[in-house]
């Protein structure tokens, strides 16, 4: 009997869609697997590239999972053997459209008692978003068996320039000696190894025991430099997000001055606290290597190193 796999995703820029279709091409080629793609679309269209205000005005609702309504969707099958969820973090939380799916009335029917693999394509900070996704999957009755993370080719500091440039202008090419934004073509091509392993493990019925399929394949690697920075930033997003939401709904003109003040605060945080915290994290990793390794190993579950 053929194995049935459902891939649910939202891709604003198109990068995650390319990644998923490349990664899962071995499943598509397999005569033993039926592969269905479900592209999530919200009634509100999140155009790309973003405008400056719409980008920053989106963070309060993103952090508080105040998700927009989705366009109706139809599944080809009533029951699947494996669910793959592809998403991008927005402001250290799952993007609004994928959060809408995870909070929808039908998601429990799709995910209940099903093995789930998450696939993340992002800049470099994904830990807090994945913690939220873990809870959402658990509430839906799903069982997370693996996580795959691919991050941008640009370094941590240069990505503070290259990623906003891409998000606000649509330009992702290398410039001024800085790397191109986004995940490299080489990394996307190399991701086929995950699809090949998943196809093999499905034939061995690994999904029936909710067993990890991607152990020791380099599916996910947490960067210790961002663990504490993400916690600080997420706390900031929640505090400021709560304040901004007091001034009306997303898009309200009255919110603009508060959003602008927050952008100034965020920029100050990025150029001062974030580099300092990254330096302190490096010192912490050196002094308490064993403890930090335990923290990172826990974050990387269930796929391991």
Provide a brief overview of the structure.
This protein has 305 residues and is of the alpha/beta class. It is built from 14 helices and 7 strands. Helix 13 crosses helix 14.
What does this structure look like?
The protein is globular, with a radius of gyration of 19 Å. It is α/β, with parallel strands linked by helices. The mean pLDDT is 92. Helix 13 packs across helix 14. It folds into two domains: 220 residues, Rossmann fold; 69 residues, no CATH class. The protein is 46% helix and 13% strand. It is built from 14 helices and seven strands. It has a five-stranded parallel β-sheet with strand order 2-1-3-6-7, sandwiched between helices. The relative contact order is 0.14.
Number of helices: 14
Strand content: 5-15%
Overall form: globular
Helix/strand order, N-terminal first: EHHEHHEEEHHEHEHHHHHHH
Q: Tell me which CATH architecture of the largest domain applies here.
A: 3-Layer(aba) Sandwich
Low-confidence stretches: none
What would CATH call the homologous superfamily of the largest domain? Flavodoxin domain
Q: Quick one: how many beta strands?
A: 7
**Percent helix:** 40-55%
Class from helix and strand fractions: alpha/beta
Overall structural domain count: 2
Strand order of the largest sheet: 2-1-3-6-7
Average pLDDT level: 92
In CATH, what is the class of the largest domain? Alpha Beta
Q: Report the end-to-end length measured between terminal Cα atoms.
A: 32 Å
Give the CATH topology of the largest domain. Rossmann fold
Query: What is the radius of gyration computed over CA atoms, rounded to a whole number of angstroms?
Result: 19 Å
Largest sheet: 5 strands, parallel
């Amino acid at each position: 009997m053929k194995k049935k796999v459902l891939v649910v995703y939202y891709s604003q820029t198109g990068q995650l869609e390319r990644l998923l279709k490349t990664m899962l091409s071995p499943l598509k080629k397999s005569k033993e697997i039926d592969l269905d793609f479900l592209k999530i679309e919200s009634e509100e269209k999140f155009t790309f590239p973003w405008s400056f205000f719409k980008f920053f005005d989106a963070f309060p609702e993103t952090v508080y999972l105040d998700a927009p309504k989705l366009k109706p969707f139809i599944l080809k099958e009533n029951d699947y053997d494996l669910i793959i969820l592809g998403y991008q973090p927005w402001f250290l939380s799952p993007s609004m459209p994928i959060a809408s799916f995870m909070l929808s009335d039908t998601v429990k029917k799709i995910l209940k008692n099903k093995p789930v693999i998450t696939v993340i394509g992002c800049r470099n900070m994904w830990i807090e978003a994945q913690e939220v996704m873990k809870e959402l999957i658990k509430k839906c009755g799903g069982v997370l068996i693996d996580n795959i993370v691919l991050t941008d080719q640009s370094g941590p500091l240069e990505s503070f320039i290259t990623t906003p440039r891409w998000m606000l202008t649509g330009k992702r090419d290398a410039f001024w000696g800085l790397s191109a934004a986004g995940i490299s073509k080489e990394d996307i091509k190399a991701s086929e190894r995950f699809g090949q392993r998943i196809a093999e493990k499905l034939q061995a019925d690994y999904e029936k025991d909710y067993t990890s399929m991607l152990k020791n394949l380099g599916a996910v690697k947490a960067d210790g430099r961002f663990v504490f920075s993400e916690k600080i930033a997420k706390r900031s997003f929640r505090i400021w997000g709560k304040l901004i939401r007091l001034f009306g709904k997303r898009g309200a003109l009255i919110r603009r001055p508060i959003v602008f003040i927050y952008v100034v605060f965020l920029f100050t945080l990025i150029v001062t606290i974030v580099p300092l915290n990254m330096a302190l994290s490096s010192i912490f990793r050196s002094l308490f290597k064993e403890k930090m390794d335990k923290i990172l190993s826990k974050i990387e579950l269930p796929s391991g190193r």
